[in-house]
Amino acid sequence: MTTKIHMLADALGRPLRFIITGGQVHDATQTSALLEGQAASAVIADKAYDSNGFREQIAVMNAEAVIPSKRNRKVFIPHDQALYKDRNRIERCFNRLKHFRRFATRYDRRTIHFTGFIYLAAVMIWSA
């Protein structure tokens, strides 16, 4: 069975929260759980997260949604392009985690063991 890691990172590209699901689960289904209880001035995400529900959740947080509109959206919603350039920090966070061979190759058969290692790797990234 394949797995997928959904992650929330801070402005410095350090992991804050993650959820492991089956590989067929879309990223946007986990957004409310990842943002629950978080405070931010802006939430940066890619086009896959462009939904009215997610934008409403960000508005409830009193944060700015920095999400490009999907191509099929009837009314395009503008976003701060200068701030959107910082979205690469989540990609860098994943790349730092992939330096750990155990993370990159997913040797663990049980999800609980893999989850434990992600916590350990996240602590090592935070302390670096």
Automatic annotation (TrEMBL):
<dbReference type="GO" id="GO:0003677">
    <property type="term" value="F:DNA binding"/>
</dbReference>
<keyword id="KW-0472">Membrane</keyword>
<dbReference type="GO" id="GO:0004803">
    <property type="term" value="F:transposase activity"/>
</dbReference>
<dbReference type="Pfam" id="PF01609">
    <property type="entry name" value="DDE_Tnp_1"/>
</dbReference>
<protein>
    <submittedName>
        <fullName>Transposase, IS4</fullName>
    </submittedName>
</protein>
<feature type="transmembrane region" description="Helical">
    <location>
        <begin position="111"/>
        <end position="127"/>
    </location>
</feature>
<feature type="domain" description="Transposase IS4-like">
    <location>
        <begin position="2"/>
        <end position="121"/>
    </location>
</feature>
<keyword id="KW-1133">Transmembrane helix</keyword>
<dbReference type="InterPro" id="IPR002559">
    <property type="entry name" value="Transposase_11"/>
</dbReference>
<dbReference type="GO" id="GO:0006313">
    <property type="term" value="P:DNA transposition"/>
</dbReference>
<keyword id="KW-0812">Transmembrane</keyword>
